[in-house]
Design goal:
single chain; 3-stranded antiparallel sheet; flat; alpha+beta; 1 helix; 3 strands; 39% strand
Length: 79
Amino acid sequence: MSEEKLVVEVIEPQHGFWEACVIVESEDENGRVKKVKEMHLVDAVNLQDCEKKIAEEMKGTMWEWKVQSCKQSKIQFVY
């Protein structure tokens, strides 16, 4: 039997990770609007940069959304 090597890529932030909670309003199968919380991990310089990057990523989505909170993350690496 041959052993396969697992290659793990480590993602380190350039500036620092920020955790952002984004509320997205969507419709369920019955047409009712429901709010869903999404957690985003963003590499950003500061709070304004974090919100700006989320806005860029969410641009063009068909649902209403808003950033509920952003805070600096203690996460140092993502594998």
